[in-house]
Amino acid sequence: MFLRTARHLVVLIAAAAMWRCGSSPTSPSGGVKLQGVVVQDATATSASAGVSARSAAKAGKIVVTVQENPSLSVTVSGNGTFEIQGLPAGGFTLVFSVNGATVGQITITAVAEGTTIKIVVRVSDQEVELVDMETDDDTGSGNGDQGTKICMIEGGKPGAGIELEGNVDSGTSSQFKLRVNGNRSSGLVDVAAAGASYKCNGNKGGSDCKSNLKTGSKVHVGGNLTSCTTSAASVTATEVMIQKD
Prior knowledge:
14 strands; globular; alpha+beta; Immunoglobulin-like; 2 domains; 5-stranded mixed barrel; CATH 2.40.50.140
């Protein structure tokens, strides 16, 4: 457990260093701002974390495009970072391509105007995986006035929108338990997904896609955090993205 936590922190520390280096933003200011780091190995050691991010960019030309507004597009820099400004509040989808070929996408929802989002993304030649995401209002959220943790999900605020990435631990497409990536959640999260729209990364959504959900499936869940304590959390999903196996 300590090793997994340490590895997760290493990636975030390396990402923070690269965010400071930054890359030139695209689009005028205003709306939502996103800062990203692309890595190849989300469980890299301290020595290799920075190398992984750089090699991801050097392995090929990685371009990030906003699906809702293709004019918002940026090439990942040599150190693995990218930045996009002027994103629409409410939500958007980032499409990742390597050497001109689309390899996957990430949908981010429930974003307020003026928010700054920081993400760490693992990109391969076959898929895209959201490793971690933070927003500028995450600091102190989920904690009481005395700094006491009241929600088992880091940055979780009951009644607010939330984005989670992980694997299905058990359940069905209508109701399942999610094991969240990294150490963002201290336990399994209950996901109510009966009314959610289902999409499969690289395929069209629909009933066939929904039936692909099974134990062990890698998924991205967007929706609202219905309730959260230090021992249990429930999310009502509006969208479930099933990643490639």
